[in-house]
Input
Amino acid sequence: MRVDLFLKLAGLLRTRSIAEKACEGGFVSLNGRAAKPSSRLKPGDEVSAMLPDGRTVVIIVKELPAGRSVPKSERASLYSVISEEAAGR
Output
């Protein structure tokens, strides 16, 4: 699964186009390297993303969604948060 689509389905970024722009702008990294929007994810990958509100979140992918939509109640089961930093810290 593409990293931009995962960020959207996991609810970390609102739309895929926002996720795509975040990747292109260097605000998303995959396993310590800058991620392109089309970078492929697999369970166990570490993703770091600077969110629009200024927070930086680092997650580990637990599982990839089977379809193109994920109910809000199931989004948190797709990843584990390793760290989260507020803006300006």
